[in-house]
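Interim report to the steering committee. The following record documents the input for CPBP family intramembrane glutamic endopeptidase (314 residues).
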Amino acid sequence: MYIAQALRYRYSFWRYIVGIIIVAIGITLGQVPWTFAVFMKEGFAMFEMPQTELLSSLESNFSLFLLLLSYAVGLAALFFAVKYLHEQPILTLSTTRKSLDVKRVMFSFLITAILIVGGIFIGYLLEPESFQWNFNLVPFLILLVIAVVLIPIQTSFEEYLFRGYLMQGIGAFAKNKWIPLLITSLIFGGLHIANPEVASYGYFIMASYIGIGLLLGIITLMDEGLELALGFHAANNLFIALLLTSENTAFQTHSIFKDISTPEILGWEVFIEILIIYPVVLGIFAKKYGWSNWKNKLFGKVEKPETLKLSEEP
């Protein structure tokens, strides 16, 4: 039903192509301030600098602010495309419920926060030598403000784009649910291939990105809305940014701890994450919200609603 909501509005293929172009333009324009700031400091040498050096070129709070700003512009561009190109209410891109269920968002946020904080705490107990105390009050407080305001915007943009816009768009033409679930997860994971983490830890870490894409896609389809995915993604990025940074990550922050371990392929961590933690998360949500009929919700057909608002075929 969540995917089928797109069929009530203007869903021609060309509209999704134009929509993606609008979003790409928005993200590009949003990156101009960061690019300009780096250019003013590094000059033309920036075009020859490795990505890790580029990301650390500016003061980390300032750099994080400018980088996250681009997602705010991207989200505005996406909402513009949905509202004016598809003539689709943002609510129908968000959920099948009468309004966005904030309690769902907060419950998912809380569960994920507990998992992130607990995971970092366990990691510290097992390998304290891999952690360096990095806390500095004033820079941390600035980071806290930036992170609390802008990281949820960044993660919301990604959820609305992948689990919302693309999930509904691909599903509208595939006429089933598993193809958009798989494709959006692969695209979501693939777009992280340029992250410094991949160069540091190896391509095996891509399984983690694709895995989290699958998890967020599954909970979106099972729950018939983005609320749980919005809460999960926001908590994941927010608490990692506040608690743990590394020279090998895309976002280098004034976090409480710094990971100083030697980069290596994290096979066992990825294994635990995908095969243990994610199923536990699904189990908690399934129990809380009484999910059932998994086969139909994940592999069923996408059927056109009986009454369309606009009689437009793809």
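Residues 91-299 form one domain. The committee is asked to note this result when reviewing the revised timeline.
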